[in-house]
Amino acid sequence: xxxxxxxxxxxxxxxxxxxxxxxxxxxxxxxxxxxxxxxxxxxxxxxxxxxxxxxxxxxxxxxxxxxxxxxxxxxxxxxxxxxxxxxx
Length: 88
Prior knowledge:
The structure is a single chain. Helix content is about 65%, strand content about 0%. By secondary structure, the protein is mainly alpha-helical. The chain has helices at about 1-20, 40-60, 70-85.
């Protein structure tokens, strides 16, 4: 149960940082164009969140069988937001 609360807190913080605060800004380099700005909701729920769900769910599924549902949920979320709603 504690693991689920920790995962929910991490995904909530990821949402706040990426959508509302503009993401983690990289260190500026000479000659490189700056990539900045806030992530759109469609891009977050269609790309960033499913990727982070799969990145956490696959290794965690070795010890916790229920974690494979994170990967399946990420796939469904990506298909729904990017393919059906075309919000990405």
